[in-house]
Amino acid sequence: MDNEWVEIVPPTNVDFWVLGDYVKGGVIQSRQKVNVRSGPGINFAIVGQLVSGDTVTLRGAMQDWVKIAPPENCSLWISRALVQ
After folding, report:
1. Residue 77 has pLDDT above 70, yes or no
2. Are 68 and 60 in contact (CB under 8 A)?
3. Which pick of 35, 56, 59, 69 has the fewest CB atoms within 10 Å?
4. Residue 54's CB: how many other CB atoms inside 10 A?
5. Whole-angstrom distance, CA of residue 59 vs CA of residue 2
6. Nearest CA to 30 among 40, 38, 18, 22?
7. 3-state SS of the chain?
8. Cα angle value 73/75/76 (rounded, 5°)
9. d(CA 2, CA 5)
10. What is the CA radius of gyration of the chain?
């Protein structure tokens, strides 16, 4: 927490998305960092990155994209003005 932002753990019902080509059996497999997005497509915001060997909990898929649960080390930032 600072003067303008509050760091929170995402609720368990929040979904994130990664390109399915990089997920094999719930494990990230890529030579480079993999972008985690807020929705199933490159037009959605990047909200984080995963590296090869990171494990993810799969929740579904849409076309080429895989829906995942928030990774353990994930956090979100909210404007302090929106938090009471």
Report:
1. yes
2. no
3. 59
4. 21
5. 33
6. 22
7. CCCCEEEECCCCCCCEEEEHHHEECCEECCCCCEEEECCCCCCCCEEEEECCCCECCEEEEECCEEEECCCCCCCEEEEHHHCC
8. 165
9. 5
10. 14
Give the pLDDT confidence score for residue 49 in this predicted structure: 93
- Residue 65 burial (10 A CB sphere; 0-12, 13-18, 19+): buried
Residue 34's identity, in one-letter code, is: V
Burial class (CB within 10 angstroms; exposed 0-12, middle 13-18, buried 19+) of 69 = middle
Could you count the other beta carbons within 10 Å of the beta carbon of residue 56? Answer: 22
Confidence of residue 1 (pLDDT cuts 50, 70, 90): low
Indicate the length of the chain as a whole number.
Answer: 84
Q: What is the pTM of this model?
A: 0.83
Q: Calculate the CA dihedral of residues 45, 77, 32, 44 and round it to 10 degrees.
A: -10
